[in-house]
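Limitations
The structure tokens in this dataset are predictions for the assembled complex, not deposited experimental models. Users should treat interface geometry with appropriate caution, especially where small molecules or nucleic acid strands are included. An illustrative entry is reproduced here so readers can see what is and is not provided.
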Amino acid sequence: MTAVRSAALTAAGRPIAGSRRLSFSWVGLVPFFAYVGLFLFLPTVIIIVGSLTTKEGALTASNFTEIAQGYVVKAFVASITISAASAVVGAVAGALLAYAVAAGNPRGILRRTVTSGSGVLAQFGGVTLAFAFVATIGTTGFVYLFLKDRGIDIYANGVWIYDLAGLTLIYTYFQIPLMLIVFLPAVDGIRPQWREATESLGGGSWHYWRYVAGPLLAPSFLGCTLLLFANAFSAYATAAALITGGGVIIPLVISNLLTSETGRAQPGLAKALAIGMIVVVLLVMSLYTLLQRRTTRWLR
Amino acid sequence: MNRTRRLKLQAFRAIVFIVLGAFFLVPIAAMLEFSTRGREINERTLNAWGSIVKTPDLTDAITASLEIAAITCVAMLVLLLPTMVWVRLRFPGLNRVVEFICLLPLTVPAIALVVGMVPIYRWLSINLSSSILTLSFAYLILVLPYSYRSLDAGLAAIDLKTLSEAARSLGAGWFTVMWRVVVPNMSSALLNASLLVVALVLGEYTFANLLAYENLQVAIYYVSLVSAGTSIAVAVASLLFAFALLMILSFVGRPPSPIAKAEDADISVGQTVGLSGGLIGRSR
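Predicted assembly:
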């Protein structure tokens, strides 16, 4: 009897012991997946479902058709305009900076300072950045007063710092450092031998840039510009601190729709706009990834 | 390279560095200037700085933000590091999945994500707690990409499998493996990840503002409506603090070997801070 029992136990015990290792190791993954499920996927689902339903829960597409309203379209256009403008300005200035850095000593103190500083400044934004510019070129700002004392009034045609123009200027403050970080590896990949090869074939600076360095850097440059676009497009805090009232750009429209201060909170439309933003950023980022892949083909 | 071209290049570099240097330094200098203005023209005073500690809203917000930063930091390490180690050891096939999930918040703008967070936070404040510290839940998602990249770099640098098998064969439990083998071997990556978390949390505005919590950045904004000088003084202080953290990071994060090429160092800085893309304006 006891022998039978213990035999049955071992027979039954072994597969359990064997499968225990298998069946319990997944438990280690539960906290992480549960967490991202709750705080990353659930919000996404809420956005998607919310954008397709009315406040009462009925299925509708009206949230998306409401995007066609004048002020929303205007904000989308404004968002895209300042993102594109600040991306292009940031990309050109950042590329010049990258070239200036790459031409120097690769282990020099200057290069280390610029790259570390860029890493820091690319993260700089929000309320603090808005204040920095208000303190600089606001109507009581240091630089504005300095210039005005010398007869230069940068606001002769009206104060533009709280406008789209001002926002674009402020965005370049974090766009240029970001461009340096993402574009420098490509510039570093350009070898001096290629220039020598061009020269030995009788080409000048123009030929070098037009036929050698230009085409090699173009995909990376375009890709980085797209990244900068996405970066500016998703920015919210800087604009929120600078511009009070009025949904001038899409992130501000969303926040106005969310907070019911105006008495007409429209969570459905806010969610539809959030989806609109995600789609734009996803498109831009996929293009960026494609272009980066093309760059790495010759980069080392 | 001939002489004229070298001269031209040097002139070009000098112009770029001076112009852009001015563009980046002047606004920070202007903030310092603004925060030390007195009532009279040309009067210099530190009153604005002194009133930081006399503004309870600010001190409360500073404490809250520091607490959230600490909680987020610990939670990130406790949640992410064991998961990443476990996946590498037991589920190598899931590695790409975890990476994809961790980098996902980069493609979702913070302002869009917060739209989906609002109902969750409404539920949380009714059923669990309405404390400002619950912001840590959301911030943990925001810092995932940056933390993942730092920890990934740290884990790639050690032979995790051999180390853990050696420890296990000597009788160590999984906790001992984590605490006494993995953690000491990647201390610089952990420091990296932690500093980034602190810098990001202290600079965060979007989530706090839209979920109606008054963290440091939101408080700075409110104070600015009453006293511009004080708010700019806090802004400068928080900025310098974040700069110091990130500067430490960019030097600590370098490969220790002097042979390591400068380019590699740049790329690693870029990966942790920028690639994950500066993107996408978490603090913006």
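Some entries come with short summary sentences. For this one: Chain B touches chain A through 95 residues (CB under 8 Å).
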